[in-house]
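Let's do one together. I've listed all components of the complex below, 256 residues spread over four lines.
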Amino acid sequence: MKTISFSISELSKSFDITPRAIRFYEDQGLLSPLREGTRRVYQEKDRVRLRLILRGKRLGFPLSEIKEIFDLYDNEMGEETQLKVLIRKIQERRLRLEQQRDDIEVVLTEMLDVEKRAKAALEELGEA
Amino acid sequence: MKTISFSISELSKSFDITPRAIRFYEDQGLLSPLREGTRRVYQEKDRVRLRLILRGKRLGFPLSEIKEIFDLYDNEMGEETQLKVLIRKIQERRLRLEQQRDDIEVVLTEMLDVEKRAKAALEELGEA
DNA sequence: CCTAACGTTAACGTTAACGTCAATATGTTG
DNA sequence: CAACATATTGACGTTAACGTTAACGTTAGG
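Okay, and this is what the predicted structure of the assembly comes out as:
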């Protein structure tokens, strides 16, 4: 079974972030790559993780919350309380995301309107 | 014409933020309330602004960008370069918002799935 | 008039998410 | 082998968005 692996700089380039950022995510417990001696070696699953981290960030989640989510996923969810916690947290986040989605719709609509008017104004200048 | 006005604490309570935050937004040039002597007096249009600020924040925009947008709106858009700048900035932001919207859809779908499985697992525990 | 409650500015403190730099190790290429 | 690229771990610096505290003014009620 061939396992493709990457150096930190390869990974950083392919996601267009700095190595420093990647090491920082590791410090915060969001990544745990293998080591070859002292060097970090990343595999596909690390890429997946990183992709999730960046998506979380784009959505405005602090790293601490992204970690919480990872921890919940990782916790072979078995016990009842664990499950209830998971469900509650998911619902919290879902509400926030739905709020964001609504915000986006409002703003996109407004922007479309402004854009139209701006283009129209530009047209007028062209004719005048 | 009756003009309703609010104190800083009234405003802060109705938006569930601190007075400090409101003053900070003013420092950053996002609000400019009237004054009665030294006291800040807010009106409906300030409420509208504040609502926009908070929405921008929820979408992850830094205050500096929110100010940029306000400045563009305020700039009686007339000149050609101004208009072009406005259109370009709007398009940039639109792309980011559309990216966010897609992110949200992905995450919401994933979350729905995890939530289902968690609830199912919880059910099983109840029966067993 | 005295006290609360609310307001003001100024200034320093805090947290998150890295950036930047130094000192050092390892690997590889001409 | 020397030089250069790439890696490592600290450690300190930076920015955004407020929090917190200090020191002080102003207004309403008893």
